[in-house]
Amino acid sequence: MSTYLSNNWETILTALRQHIWLALVPVVIGFVVALPIGYLGVRFPWLYHPLVNTCGVLYSIPSLALFVFLPVVLGTKILSPLNIVVALTIYTVALLARTVADGLRSVDALVVQSATAMGYRRLRRLIDVELPVALPVILAGLRVATVSNISLVSVGALIGVGGLGQLFTRGFQLFYTQPIIVGIVLSVALAGICDLAIVGLQRLVTPWTRYQRGAA
Amino acid sequence: MNLSYLFDAAHWSLTDDGSIPQLILSHVWYVVLALIIGTIIALPVGLYIGHTGRGSFLAINAGNAGRSLPTLGLLMLMVTLLGLGLTPVLIALTVLVIPPILTSAYAGMRTLDHRVVDAARGMGMRPSQVLFKVELPMALPVMMSGFRSAALQVVATATVAAAVGLNGLGRLLIDGLAVNDYSRVLAGAIVVAVLAVVLDLILALAQRWIVSPGLR
User: Fold this and answer.
1) Contact A159 B177 (CB under 8 A)
2) Residues 6 or more apart from B95 whose CB is under 8 A from it?
3) Residues of chain B with C-beta less than 8 angstroms from the C-beta of A65
4) Is B72 close to A165, i.e. CB distance below 8 A?
């Protein structure tokens, strides 16, 4: 194992860097896109069920199919990393739009009414009151999206762009377990680190959830 | 959008190897096997942890740990270790379905109304009766939602079986990609998505049927 690592660390690092980039850019874009979509699902209640169902169907498209098919729709090259980014953004939006809607719906009606009574207009109330209260639910969804994106990127290796997934395909072609093990370990470790980072962020931005638990 | 492959009657023959019905059949076969094996392993463990409260840490973190394991990497590792065949595919897909089933079985048991369990004990029910007649039926809706999300994931992910030479609907994606036949890739993507929706509908119906009317 150590000879494999010392002989290939540059390849491994490049794969890891590509993996991080391919997994996390979609999380950021997807989050930004999902916020207004999820809000619409709450603002217009008749939109909620169509929204949830559309998200469910989008999420059930196999990643491999999306990776292969996007070049046809977007006119990109099959080896372009853009395909992976767009595909994972679609999954992230599908996952988070629903979570955002559920999070906003979970806000206690009394809280919303108090804010209204204090003179908050709709937009201010959304940004200052409803979104912060919904954050624990939304961030839980963000954790799921981030972790599953990190594991999905490797499927891209089947079409030639897959970060750590390229270590899997290489090991598979050579019937050689070491690159595969290194790829799996790095991918899981990366997911764990990102997950912890979001948990840390959540503790930082929603301090009241800790006090509540302490009081109960 | 070229649907010619999907709507070509020649690809729907019931007897030809590699026809769409045959691929659906093998795809469903992998999915069902993985779900059965995964349920046999994960359900008792999740119920035990939820019932006793011992090992909650494991149950809560199994979900995220499982999501972060890249299925493609695990599959290719298993193939290099065990050789080609159904076993490595089933191991990879079973590892995929265990976390959602385990976590939801645990969550279902934990979120029960404790007063109901106390009432059942007060009525003189034995521990096994409390488990099978009260806790299990009441935990069913949450458990079913975990099972349904496991089923959706495994339907989409079973496509990677084709990457190591097995059948399933991934064949349409991998072979279509290999010969630049996007009509075939699209057919594969559509059939998988439809299969996922149909399976979810069947499970939703099953849920209506097995969940006690008192819990709706």
Assistant:
1) yes
2) B66, B69, B71, B74
3) 159, 173, 185, 188-189, 192
4) yes
Determine whether the interchain pair A195/B68 forms a contact, defined as Cβ–Cβ distance below 8 Å. yes
Domain annotation covers residue B9? no
Q: B154 CA to chain A: closest CA distance, Å?
A: 9
The closest alpha carbon to A87, from A33, A152, A18, belongs to A152
Whole-angstrom distance, CA of residue A23 vs CA of residue B13: 40
Residues A139, A140, A142, CA angle at the centre, nearest 5°? 60
Size of interface A-B (CB pairs under 8 A): 133
Q: What is the pLDDT along chain A (216 residues), one digit of tens a residue?
A: 778 888 888 899 999 999 999 999 999 999 999 999 999 999 999 999 999 888 887 887 778 888 887 887 888 887 888 999 999 999 999 999 999 999 999 899 999 999 999 999 988 999 999 999 999 899 999 998 999 899 899 999 988 888 999 999 999 999 889 999 999 999 999 999 999 999 999 989 888 877 765 544
Residue B1 inside a domain? The answer is no
Q: pTM for this one?
A: 0.86
Could you say which of A60, A65, A154 has the minimum Cβ distance to residue B72? A154
Where residue B26 sits, what CATH number does that domain have?
1.10.3720.10
Residue A157 and residue B72: Cβ atoms within 8 Å?
yes
* Structural domain range at position B100: 17-215
- Structurally, chain B folds into a number of domains equal to 1
Q: What is the mean pLDDT of residues B73-97?
A: 92
Sequence-distant (≥ 6) Cβ neighbours of residue B40 within 8 angstroms: none
Under 8 Å between Cβ of B35 and B124: no
Q: Is the residue at B119 inside a domain?
A: yes
Mutation pick from B64, B72, B91 vs chain A, by most beta carbons of A within 10 Å, is B72
Domain residues for the domain of A132 are 2-215
- Residue B2 is assigned to a structural domain of this protein: no
For the stretch B123-156, pLDDT in tens is: 999 988 988 888 888 889 889 988 998 998 899 8
Give CA–CA dist B216/B213, Å, rounded.
Answer: 6
> What's the domain count of chain A?
1
CATH of the domain at A137: 1.10.3720.10
Interface touch B189/A157, C-beta < 8 Å: no
